[in-house]
Design a protein that fits this description.
Length: 136
């Protein structure tokens, strides 16, 4: 080989929805009372639909990327996934409750510092249904 040309291209793999099925077979034993079954895996929302990865994706889209839940619902609908804004809002409430311990820990670390720096840049935010923006 006397050399090579190399080029790079940026690509993206869009998020893909999938259904995760957890199977927990039940076993009955002769000479023993009852049925044995493996414990169900723990979830942030017990017996709920969303995986932890989906909750993180929705939260990052909402809070870090500024993508409101009603827009996310429309985006997910393109993949034939129907998630209402109110359902996702309930999920964010559950997630906030679970992350309170982390938020308290971070707040204590911030308070322990000598100085606190903050970015107070305002952002235009759409008001759904009105066609107008407000400053947030």
């Amino acid at each position: 080989m006397i050399g090579e040309d190399r080029s790079e291209r940026l690509d993206v793999i869009p998020p893909k929805f999938r259904v995760i099925v957890t199977r927990r077979p039940k076993y009955a034993f002769r000479g023993r009372d009852g049925v044995l079954q493996a414990l169900a895996p723990a979830h942030i929302i017990e017996a709920g639909l969303p995986s932890e990865r989906l909750l993180a994706y929705i939260a990052v889209s909402k809070y870090a990327d500024g993508l409101p839940l009603y827009r996310q619902a429309t985006i997910y609908l393109r993949d034939s996934v129907v998630l209402s804004r109110s359902l996702m809002a309930q999920w964010m409430g559950h997630l906030g409750f679970e992350l309170k311990i982390l938020a308290d820990y971070i707040l204590e670390k911030i308070k322990a510092g000598e100085r606190v720096f903050a970015d107070e840049t305002t952002l235009p935010t759409l008001m759904p249904g009105s066609g107008k923006t407000i400053t947030a």
